[in-house]
Design goal:
The complex is a heterodimer of chains A (210) and B (233). By secondary structure, chain A is α+β, with helices and mostly antiparallel strands. Chain A has seven helices and six strands. The chains are: A alpha+beta (210), B alpha+beta (233).
Chain lengths: 210, 233
């Protein structure tokens, strides 16, 4: 009855038992209940709009990420010059001026994580409707990583805000946030919303077709 | 860690499932049994809810999400930590987190100053976002947790709207970014060392404390136990 190649142990889902589960507090209710009587969360056995919401926020996130890389993140004015740094330009500058570690942190948080997140969410959203090429367990793990790591991209926005508010020394040197700081922040927020809109239960439905 | 979720419902002819009696709402499960069940929020696997012994964790057999991890006297610890968050973040808002000095000129700012500096400028949104993510949301979450848990710790019935309050606290969790700000301060300091003398201000150390407190709070917090306690009305 049970195929040996099936990923993970045999479980019954709330949906199969004719129940709808609250994703917030884990309580189950008879199918058709619209809000959780315990915590008030809206109940849906599967969020049928999930993928549409995911893609909508995803597109918004990618669109905001483009100007975030083209426009300067920081504008530094010193007595003699005025310098504008994009994310990648700033990291190269740091690398050349002897802080390769910080350059790496910035590149990781502002380039590797956002791009990785875009790819990971797209992969999850596409693979949800397809045959199981990559185990559900692994995809679930990927989703958890995306959810956990997404917020950390905000670090660069905070660094810009910190620098700009701190370095205001009249004529000697002052730093102002560039337009990219805002679009980057928006990109991070949109991507977080995209990940949150994903209904992870959809990952498992294809594993256990009954 | 041992898996402590008991009796997977319908695990090949499982005991609790009554297929003979078609209930109106749910054909497979006895409707009286529904309050005893729970589902993994991550993958929808159905379980018979039963508390694991304190200190142990119940993990979803399929996706390994932690379903319950009760600890003894966790409530008191969490309330204490939430109070610490309110005090630390509240004070840190007005104290400088970094100070800078270059040939006699110096500056030290708090987050509150930062918000004031940016308002009016084009990037006011950025400052407001920072204040909301770093100050307001962590404090609101801590206050909600205190509101929910204090009656439970004192063995009183749950406060009015406690379940709603706890749901909001959980919903805000990913948007609480105090710890990210603390790391941001450290990065900013390194970035500026070439340019000027920079030193951590008191607010930085408070945020460093907040990072530790939030990590501890997360370890103590068993959401399943809280929801269960809120159920007893």
């Amino acid at each position: 009855m049970v195929g040996m190649e099936r990923a993970g142990p045999e479980v019954t889902t709330a949906r199969e038992a004719g129940l709808v589960a609250c994703r917030r507090c884990a309580k189950v209710w008879p199918m058709g209940t619209s809000t959780c009587q315990r915590c008030g969360e809206r109940l849906q056995s599967r969020d049928t709009m999930s993928l549409q919401k995911v893609w909508a926020w995803w597109v918004a996130g990618v669109l905001a990420y483009i100007p975030a890389n083209l426009y300067p993140m920081l504008q530094t004015r010193t007595l003699f010059r005025r310098q504008e740094d994009t994310i990648i330009g700033g990291a190269i500058e740091l690398f050349l001026h002897g802080s390769p570690f910080i350059a790496f942190v910035i590149l990781f948080a502002s380039v590797a994580i956002p791009v990785g997140k875009f790819l990971a969410i797209a992969f999850l959203a596409i693979s949800v409707g397809r045959a199981d090429s990559f185990g559900a367990g692994a995809r679930n793990r990927l989703y958890e990583v995306v959810e956990f790591i997404g917020r950390w991209s905000m670090i660069d926005v905070f660094v810009v805000a910190i620098l700009a508010s701190l370095v205001q020394l009249n004529v000697i040197v002052s730093i102002a946030p560039g337009p990219a700081s805002l679009t980057f922040a928006l990109s991070v927020i949109f991507t977080m919303l995209s990940a949150q809109a994903f209904d992870s239960r959809l990952i498992w439905d294809k594993v256990d077709p009954r | 860690m041992p898996v402590r979720v008991d009796e997977r419902v319908l695990a090949v002819g499982g005991g609790s499932v009554d297929t003979r009696r078609p209930a109106m709402e749910s054909p497979l499960v006895d409707s009286d049994d529904i309050p005893n069940l729970m589902a993994c929020p991550q993958c929808d696997a159905l379980y018979r809810a039963k508390a694991p012994p304190p200190g142990e964790r119940a993990v979803c057999a399929r996706c390994h999400t932690v379903l319950a991890a009760p600890r003894k006297r966790a409530g008191t610890a969490i309330v204490a930590l939430a109070v610490a968050v309110v005090i630390l973040v509240g004070a840190a808002a007005f104290l400088p987190f970094l100070s800078i000095s270059v040939i006699g000129l110096g500056n030290a700012v708090s987050i509150f100053d930062a918000v004031i500096v940016f308002t009016g400028g084009e990037l006011a949104l950025l400052a407001i976002a920072m204040a909301v993510l770093v100050l307001i949301i962590p404090v609101v979450r801590a206050l909600l947790v205190i509101y929910v848990l204090v009656p439970l710790v004192l063995d009183r019935p749950p406060a009015k709207y406690a379940a709603r309050a706890f749901r909001w606290s959980e919903r805000l969790r990913p948007w609480s970014m105090a710890e990210i700000f603390a790391i941001g301060c450290a990065v900013a300091l390194v970035k500026l060392t070439d340019l000027a003398n920079v030193e951590f201000g008191p607010a930085f150390w408070m945020f460093a404390g907040v990072v530790v407190v939030i990590v501890l709070q997360d370890r103590f917090m068993c959401r399943w136990s809280v929801w269960n306690a809120l159920d007893r009305k």
